[in-house]
Specification:
With 372 residues, the chain is of the alpha/beta class. Helix content is 45%, strand content 15%. Strand 6, helix 6 and strand 7 form a beta-alpha-beta unit. The protein is globular, with a radius of gyration of 21 Å.
């Protein structure tokens, strides 16, 4: 806690995290850290956020009624209408109980609370976890007090707004931060693959990956133990693809104890969301990234490249991905245990597990400057 907060009344702070896990988990980590410091906190999420079943403990929250983002004119119009309705709803909630500060974690679910804060002249902070600025951050950056980030510079952000950047790192869940000292050991016999993050554009994970693994050399294939996140609608087909290749697999739509899976994994195949990268760096487990090709402004490719450029991971593009090309990449990685260890070490060196404290310090600093 920064100096000065012992003598003033605890302010009421609203934290907003919705949409994907990359926005939700860091928001929850900050909400819990602020609660630990004795602040009064309200957490706002959306229906997708509720689907993760990981709401911050002992923190009041409410849920925005927003549809999933989908392409197409009608879907976009429907989203625009719901966003407008939710702006009025959140404004009304803020009038009933006015926050001293709002912290938004990006994505369209953060838009209504941040606009409501702007209308009511409530100061707000935005957290941008990606190497390329999100649209909500770009639109509202001129009005934000600070922009906390993993990076000292953010692609696509106006130079004037870049002056507001405070490098804090990306908050991660406490159970994952606790694995900071869990040393990585390269596989000698069984190779444990953990596949996670295929909730969007799942073909690369649910269809292409099983077919690629089937193309691996028999001796390498026999060593594999595969644990994979899989959307329910793809589970039957994915399981059949593995079974036809003589492979056993553990499939689940969501892993409640993901920290345990991270710890046991020898290679993690995943998307390249900033939250995932931050967690893997904290744990120090080597990743193969398959960035979501439809991610906004292709920000996941920027994220993956920033790690690959430091030789702390591998990445293959989803565009034009085939079972044969993916099998070639996997074989090259898995046949080099020393390469796995060195990659894990480099990624681990980039890990930050104190981002929630740094972000909470920024929140308190902004509040103190406003109160003074």
């Amino acid at each position: 806690m920064i100096k000065g907060f012992k003598k003033i009344k605890r302010p009421f702070i609203t934290v907003v995290g919705g949409g994907t896990g990359g926005h939700i988990f860091p928001a929850q980590a900050l909400a819990e850290k602020l609660k630990q410091r004795g602040h009064r906190v309200l957490y706002i999420t959306d229906k997708r956020g509720m689907g993760f079943h990981t709401q911050p403990k002992d923190i009041p929250f409410f849920v925005l009624d927003l549809p999933y983002y989908r392409p197409g004119l009608i879907a976009k119009l429907a989203l625009f209408v719901r966003l407008t309705i939710e702006i009025f709803y959140v404004t009304w909630r803020f009038l009933l109980k006015r926050p001293a500060l709002v912290v938004g974690f990006g994505g369209y679910p953060s838009f209504p609370p941040l606009v409501a804060a702007l209308v009511l002249r409530v100061p707000f902070i935005m957290h941008e976890q990606n190497a390329y600025v999100g649209r909500v951050t770009r639109w509202l950056a001129p009005f934000s007090q600070k922009i906390t980030s993993v990076f000292s510079s953010i692609n696509g952000l106006h130079p004037q707004d870049s002056q507001k950047i405070v490098v804090t790192g990306n908050p991660i869940r406490a159970n994952i931060a606790a694995l900071r000292t869990a040393r990585y050991k390269a596989p000698t016999k069984t190779i444990r693959l953990f596949v996670v993050g295929g909730s969007q554009g799942a073909k690369a994970f649910s269809i292409i990956l099983p077919l690629a693994i089937r193309l691996l050399p028999p001796l390498l294939k026999k060593r594999l133990k595969i644990i994979q996140q899989c959307r329910p609608e793809f589970e039957k087909e994915t399981r059949a693809l593995y079974k036809e290749g003589g492979l056993s697999v553990t499939l689940a739509p969501f892993f409640q104890d993901i920290a345990s899976e991270y710890k046991k994994a020898h290679l993690i195949i995943t998307r390249a969301g900033a939250s995932t990268i931050t967690e893997l760096a904290a744990v120090g487990r080597p990743p193969l990234f398959i960035p979501l090709s439809t991610s906004m402004d292709d920000h996941q490719t920027y994220n993956a490249q920033s790690i690959v450029n430091q030789k702390a991971g591998w990445y293959t593009s989803e565009r034009g991905l085939t079972p044969k090309s993916l099998a070639h990449t996997l074989e090259k990685i898995l046949k080099d245990p020393k390469g796995l260890e060195k990659t894990a070490e480099r990624l681990h060196a980039l890990g930050v597990t104190t981002a929630d404290d740094a972000l909470a310090d920024t929140v308190e600093a902004v509040l103190l400057s406003r109160q003074s």
